[in-house]
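Researcher: Sequence recovery benchmark, item below. Answer with residues only.
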């Protein structure tokens, strides 16, 4: 209740000052002052547009007051005052503007140093394309019984438990209105995912939440119960995620409420840890067999997997298994090391996994080299919030993009970085009902819808300026990067792109392929026997 202390005091002081003023007119100044604060606090509680003001009446108007009430606000303002924040203020502001449908134009020039190394841009055309529809889509699982028409910009995996009930309601309601999908995260399908009927991609992690037996093993019967729900459009097997690859999922004990425990099938108030490994397969061929099995059990819904790239030979083993067995996932989601999470060890966040661009390039190149790229769709996730982020990612091989933090910002997240404490000040990443019930679902779902629509409109405008009509037309030749103060290269020149079928005839002169392709195995994730020899000979 400390959040309401100032408001309650303002009411008490107003009553006390009013009583004194009735006997001594000199006290009317106190009535006016305390009464004004009481009115502000009451307005804060009654309004629905700002969850922060509802959770922190009066205090939300004072920066230093917010800093004084706890580490969540103090950390937020520390980050806001730092030039290099985990996620730049500029991008956060852009999401807020688009989610509220306010003007997102600005005067003067770019905020970037155009002569700085790593500055990127898209070249425009002297003959811009005419503006057309902005609802860019593609069909996933064309050869399956239940193909799905997916938007090119969707909500990335975030579980019930990591996010609050009202945050999920708002996201799913916005997704329903906008016709894009909402990834459940590995925490299974909660009642709040179902409430508004938005399209769902059901993510299944190593804990098999929502499809596990009493011993934690995969249950076909329970899988079928959820997978055949018409609201579930695709099935996604999570191998690893960018923010904590190889670690498994962690939901702190204070957030494992009885409701979450029931949804996941685990004991309440006990830290919920997903195993680092899956129990249903232990090699690349086994993974593909599991993909085919889930696709069959779901009634022919598009089925794929999500992974963060680590050891190259493990991904190559999966690719070889696809080529040798002919069993293909309908899609692969590449999650970059820069992806976010609610709780992860610092070393995993900062120093484990391949960044999204390099990981996406490796997966894309491998599929192209095997002649499989046109049969497997690719998605990507990892700090994607703007139209340029989407265009650049699709230029490097993605068919669509997913965003987590972008949609979190849309429902009110201020990146206070207290997700793991259950003290989220905006009710987004908490299971404390006194906090999350202040998040207004109707208002925030409108913001989710607006953010999606306005970002796709910006993507359309960006593509039209480049003379293109659809995101599938953007290629690495359209995106340029300054690599030094005097040198500029296109993505096509910076990266080695394999030719269709190239891996079927020879091993290309590409460091990763040259080192690991020939020694990778479709029947094992284990490192090749000669990795040590290659290291000693400085091949790798």
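Model:
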């Amino acid at each position: 209740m400390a959040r309401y202390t100032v408001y309650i005091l303002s009411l008490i002081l107003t009553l006390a000052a009013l009583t004194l003023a009735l006997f001594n007119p000199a006290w009317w100044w106190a009535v006016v002052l305390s009464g004004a604060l009481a009115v502000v606090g009451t307005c804060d509680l009654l309004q629905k547009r700002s969850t922060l003001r509802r959770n922190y009446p009066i205090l939300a108007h004072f920066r230093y007051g917010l800093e004084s009430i706890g580490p969540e606000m103090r950390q937020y303002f520390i980050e806001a005052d730092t030039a290099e924040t985990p996620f730049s203020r500029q991008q956060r502001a852009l999401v807020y503007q688009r989610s509220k449908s306010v003007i997102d134009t600005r005067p003067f020039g770019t905020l970037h140093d155009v002569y700085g190394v790593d500055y990127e841009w898209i070249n425009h055309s002297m003959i811009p394309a005419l503006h057309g529809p902005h609802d860019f889509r593609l069909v996933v699982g064309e050869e399956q019984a239940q193909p799905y028409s997916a938007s090119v910009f969707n909500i990335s995996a975030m579980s019930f438990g990591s996010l609050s009930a009202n945050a999920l309601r708002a996201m799913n309601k916005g997704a329903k209105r906008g016709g894009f999908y909402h990834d459940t995260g590995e925490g299974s399908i909660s009642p709040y995912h179902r409430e508004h009927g938005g399209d769902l991609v059901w993510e299944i992690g190593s804990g098999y939440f929502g499809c596990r037996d009493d011993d934690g093993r995969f249950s076909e019967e329970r899988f079928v119960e959820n997978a055949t729900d018409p609201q579930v459009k695709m099935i996604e097997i999570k191998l690893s995620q960018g923010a904590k690859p190889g670690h498994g999922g962690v939901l702190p004990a204070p957030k494992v409420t009885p409701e979450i425990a029931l949804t996941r099938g685990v004991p309440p108030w006990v830290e919920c840890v997903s195993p680092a490994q899956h129990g249903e397969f232990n090699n690349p061929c086994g993974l593909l067999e599991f993909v085919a099995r889930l696709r069959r059990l779901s009634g022919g819904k598009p089925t794929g997997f999500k992974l963060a790239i680590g050891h190259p030979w493990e991904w190559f083993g999966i690719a070889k298994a696809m080529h040798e067995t002919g069993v293909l996932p309908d899609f692969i989601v590449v999650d970059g090391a820069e992806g976010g999470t609610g709780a992860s060890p610092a070393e995993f966040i900062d120093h484990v996994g391949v960044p999204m661009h390099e990981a996406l390039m490796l997966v894309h190149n491998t599929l192209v080299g095997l002649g499989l790229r046109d049969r497997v769709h690719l998605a990507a996730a990892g700090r994607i919030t703007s139209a340029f982020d989407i265009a650049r990612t699709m230029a490097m091989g993605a068919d669509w993009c997913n965003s987590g933090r972008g949609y979190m910002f849309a429902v009110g997240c201020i990146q206070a970085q207290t997700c793991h404490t259950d003290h989220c000040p905006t009710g987004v990443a908490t299971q404390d009902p006194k906090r999350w019930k202040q998040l207004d679902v109707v208002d925030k779902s409108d913001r989710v819808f607006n953010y999606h629509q306005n970002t796709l409109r910006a993507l359309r405008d960006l593509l039209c300026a480049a003379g293109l009509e659809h995101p599938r037309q953007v290629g690495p030749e359209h995106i340029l990067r300054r690599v030094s103060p005097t040198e500029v290269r296109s993505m096509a020149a910076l990266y080695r792109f394999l030719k269709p079928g190239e891996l079927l005839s020879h091993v290309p002169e590409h460091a990763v392929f040259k080192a690991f392709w020939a020694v990778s195995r479709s029947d094992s994730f284990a490192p090749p026997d000669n990795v040590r020899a290659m290291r000693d000979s400085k091949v790798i």
